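To the wet lab folks,

You asked to see what we're planning to order before we commit. Fair enough. Below is the target structure as tokens, and below that is the sequence we designed to fit it. If anything looks off to you, flag it before the synthesis order goes out.
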């Protein structure tokens, strides 16, 4: 049983999944292993991750490993209807469509939880949160879950501190093979793919303001610089701010950046980073985007309140006319721009992120029945295994320590 927009879109979606899969060699090799060992035999896996081609392949990998898979999206604008249709045609239970209402989105989350999942693959914490509130009676069947992103982990740690987390979670985002590449190089590239495709404007020479210089912000700023932009960073952490200065960027508070920026990208995981007060000082036509997980970084609700009028300017771009006569352009409703107005991260990057997801989920399946801590770092051996496989597929070799070198670097002897 699936709830999708239109099964007739499946053929186009299968092509997208095939293209992504053919650029995800690590995940392919894991898929082959899973076909042999069937680590998820008899288990139900519920997935809520941006429902596009790479995620679809991850769902197929769980199925190949023996799981009964239930999938939905993690953001109403990032679901691609052709991919959802393709997944349904491949025997996955899919509940998602593009531009679902908030009510439909929550209904779809409930659909993947109702069958009683054993493993939960979450992105942002919505699924885990709903499980704890609306499906408490099914919690004893949950072996554990994996969380994909920074914001989801912040929510999980808060739940754990409050003593509310009821099953073990794997911190997938914090694995090196995830955030070092996905958050930095994935977000860095896909944010600019999305902004450039959606606006069809030049980046060179523009003043780009990047709010937040964490893993994602570093990537967004680095790629903006590569495209010829003059980059300004805003931060609240003094150490990260110095890093941005040393990387060659101007650092200033948002209040000072707002009147000079041409394009704004928030990527903080915080809320109210760009407020109506900032917007009223911006130049005519300033472009506002968010790449953080939730659509609360650009205060869209506040913008809706102060705007005297709004108009559709291009697909996915809404112009808001402000009381001072100037206007700002908001892309993708302030939802994470690389998914709401683009195709997400490149497949080669998600190859590593979803390799972490799949092996972290296998770790949970392998340890079922054991008492795991509620919060679990992904074991370093998993990072290493994925790095070794990726290097092999990249055709890059590395040196190996000799026994003398091993001894030398582990001792105080000179
Ligand atoms: N768009 C994507 O594809 C994608 C990919 C990965 C992560 N994310 C999301 O992006 C967000 C950032 O992730 P990250 O891994 O870079 O996190 P991070 O913790 O490494 O970095 C966040 C940075 O923002 C700064 N910050 C916080 N509040 C701020 C504020 N009000 N003004 C300015 N700076 C502020 C913090 O000091 C920190 O340096 C999260 O919501 C994460 O879930 C998005």
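Sequence we intend to order:
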């Amino acid at each position: 049983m699936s709830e999708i927009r239109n099964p007739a879109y499946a053929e186009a979606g299968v092509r997208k999944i095939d293209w992504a899969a053919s650029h995800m060699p690590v995940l392919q090799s894991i898929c082959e292993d899973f076909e042999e060992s069937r680590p998820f035999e008899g288990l139900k896996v519920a997935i809520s991750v941006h429902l596009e081609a790479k995620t679809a392949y991850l769902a197929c990998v769980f199925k190949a490993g023996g799981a009964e898979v239930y999938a939905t999206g993690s953001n109403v604008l990032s679901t691609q209807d052709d991919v959802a249709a393709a997944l349904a045609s491949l025997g996955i239970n899919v509940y998602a469509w593009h531009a679902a209402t908030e009510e439909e989105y929550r209904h779809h989350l409930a659909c993947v939880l109702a069958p009683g999942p054993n493993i939960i693959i979450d992105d942002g914490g919505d699924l885990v949160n709903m499980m704890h509130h609306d499906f408490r009676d099914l919690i004893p069947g949950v072996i554990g879950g994996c969380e994909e992103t920074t914001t989801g982990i912040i929510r999980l740690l808060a739940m754990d501190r409050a003593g509310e987390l009821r099953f073990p979670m794997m911190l997938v985002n914090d694995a090196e093979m995830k955030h070092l590449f996905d958050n930095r190089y994935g977000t860095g590239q896909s944010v600019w793919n999305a902004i450039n495709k959606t606006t069809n404007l030049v980046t060179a020479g523009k003043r780009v303001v990047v709010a937040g210089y964490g893993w994602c912000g570093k990537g967004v700023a680095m790629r903006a610089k590569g495209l010829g932009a003059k980059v300004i960073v805003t931060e609240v952490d003094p150490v990260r701010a110095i890093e941005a200065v040393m990387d060659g960027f101007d650092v200033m508070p948002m209040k000072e950046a707002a009147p000079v920026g041409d394009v704004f990208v928030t990527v903080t995981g915080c809320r109210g980073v760009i407020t109506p007060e900032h917007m009223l000082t911006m130049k005519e036509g300033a472009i506002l985007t968010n790449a953080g997980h939730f659509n609360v970084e650009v205060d869209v609700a506040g913008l809706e309140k102060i705007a005297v009028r709004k108009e559709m300017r291009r697909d996915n771009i809404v112009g808001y006319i402000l009381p001072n006569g100037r206007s700002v352009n908001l892309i993708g409703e302030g939802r994470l721009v690389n998914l709401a107005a683009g195709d997400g991260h490149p497949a080669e990057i998600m190859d590593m992120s979803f390799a972490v997801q799949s092996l972290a989920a296998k770790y949970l399946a392998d340890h079922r029945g054991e008492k795991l801590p509620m919060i679990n770092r992904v074991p370093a051996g998993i990072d290493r295994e994925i790095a070794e496989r990726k290097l092999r597929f990249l055709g890059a070799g590395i040196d190996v320590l000799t026994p003398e070198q091993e001894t030398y670097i582990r001792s105080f002897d000179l």
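Structural context that might help your review: The pocket of nicotinamide-adenine-dinucleotide is lined by residues 149-151, 179, 182-183, 187, 211-217, 234-237, 240, 267-270, 273, 291-293, 336, 338 (CB under 6 Å). The mean pLDDT is 97.

Thanks,
Computational group
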